[in-house]
Write a structure and sequence with these properties.
It is found in: Nucleus. InterPro entries: Synovial_Prolif_Regulator. By secondary structure, the chain is mainly α. It has a domain of 150 residues.
Length: 424
């Protein structure tokens, strides 16, 4: 929410008093900042409702770059660090961290904060707070700062994460919170950290701190809390965003040579995520007849997760095989309808639809083959009975030749045994 143009309260904004190209008063901001310079009077000010309201106004004002630069000019981060020991109210802490978070949307402020090791460490310790509103603002501060940070600054961030035990605090939140906003913000924070800290240069440190046995368990718990327990309070965009970033996070966690060793006991957690995602998109694609261009990437991500974690050995049909095959059948029907000049799908571009269909069908075929390669004998029989004659078409679409051979050999052995049984 933007403040009103009379944000300077009872003081009129006069010529020479405005901050940059905004309509905000320098005097209003300076008078507010001066209150932080005196501990004795600040204790009393913190009890006043008007002081909290003025801070909220400043919080809104920091959405403007010129205001942030003005605050930087007056070294506001150092001033807040000086005053922090006096601040006890959780609401004031939330507002101040929110102000700093807004400031960190500007590169100059984000870099300045990163040079204040003691203050930033103090702030990061609030990840262990019991106040959800404070944690939300802190996680947003981290997200904004990482987004703007150069590689050298990312190194400092991950060293700070290790120093304060950030991953343990984050995973605790994901496993134990039922606050929707906090969970979603935490998932976004986890995804941001994976995106910016899991780099070639920092790979070893990222692995050592974030790739732990509780990571996928925490991710799965938070995922289910939002997509199952609180599904009715989420709009479609929110749900689909959670689907995508949860798969992205999982890909980052399993992208190491030792990932299987770390996560071999978390296969069920990963399957819970995959099953919910595929059930959702099966309904969207097969029943609602809606094209989603993210589907190919979602399927390809799942192929990688299934391959690395070797989930098929403990996986029943209903986790993702059935959903995958139903989407595969629907794609086959699209191909037939397109050849006849019609379509029930919401896409007027036939070439785009055809290209999407080809890519998605190949990805689904690969995922189905990943399942057939490692599933139990009982599930193999069920799978082959279900796909029937479509098996040969799938075989032609799988580009991974080693996978094709492994599945072909297994299916051939199965069919040979089946014939021997029939001849007995």
């Amino acid at each position: 929410m933007k403040p009103d143009q009379d944000a300077s309260k009872d003081e009129d904004v006069v010529d020479g008093d405005v901050i940059g190209d905004t309509v905000y008063s320098e005097r209003f901001v300076l008078k507010l900042l001066l209150k932080f310079a005196n501990w004795d009077t600040l204790k009393d000010e913190l009890q006043e409702k008007t002081f909290e309201e003025d801070l909220c106004t400043l919080w809104d004002m920091t959405a403007e770059r010129d205001v942030v630069l003005f605050l930087q000019k007056h070294d506001v981060l150092s001033l807040l660090h000086f005053a922090w020991p006096v601040v006890e109210s959780p609401r004031i802490v939330e507002i101040l961290i929110g102000i700093i978070g807004n400031m960190c949307c500007q590169k100059e402020a984000a870099q300045a904060l990163l040079k204040m090791d003691t203050f930033l460490t103090l702030l990061l310790e609030y990840t262990k707070s019991e106040d959800s509103l404070i944690i939300i603002q802190l996680l947003r501060l981290v997200n904004s700062s990482l987004f703007l940070a150069d590689d050298s600054f990312i190194t400092i961030w991950i060293e700070l994460f290790i120093k304060i035990g950030y991953s343990s605090a984050l995973y605790f939140i994901l496993k134990n919170s039922s606050n929707k906003d906090l969970i979603i913000t935490s998932l976004e924070n986890f995804n941001t950290i994976c995106s910016y800290c899991n780099t070639e240069q920092l790979r070893t440190r990222f692995f050592g701190h974030f790739v732990t046995s509780e990571a996928i368990e925490a991710l799965s718990t938070a995922f289910i809390e939002i997509t199952v327990n609180q599904k009715e309070s989420c709009n479609r965009d929110e749900l689909e965003r959670i689907f995508i970033i949860s798969l992205q996070i999982t890909l980052n966690l399993i992208g190491f040579d030792k990932s299987y060793e770390v996560y071999q006991d978390n296969k069920i957690d990963a399957l819970k995520i995959i099953s919910i995602v595929f059930t959702y998109y099966e309904n969207k694609f097969v029943k609602e007849k809606e094209i989603d261009m993210d589907l190919v990437d979602i399927i390809d991500s799942t192929v990688t997760i299934v391959r690395v974690l070797e989930t098929s050995s403990i996986c029943d049909h209903d986790k993702y095989f059935t959903q995958s095959y139903n989407m595969w059948i629907t794609l086959s029907s699209i191909d037939k309808i397109n050849r006849n000049g019609g379509s029930s799908f919401e896409n007027d571009d036939k070439e785009e639809l055809q290209d999407f269909s080809i890519k998605m069908k190949a990805s689904l075929s690969t995922l189905i083959f990943r399942y057939i390669e490692k599933c139990s004998d009982e599930n193999l029989y069920k799978a082959l009975d279900e796909i029937g004659k479509d098996y040969d078409d799938m075989l032609g679409l799988v580009e991974d030749k080693l996978l094709s051979k492994a599945v072909s050999d297994r299916v051939s052995n199965y069919r040979t045994r089946l014939k021997d049984t029939e001849n007995c």
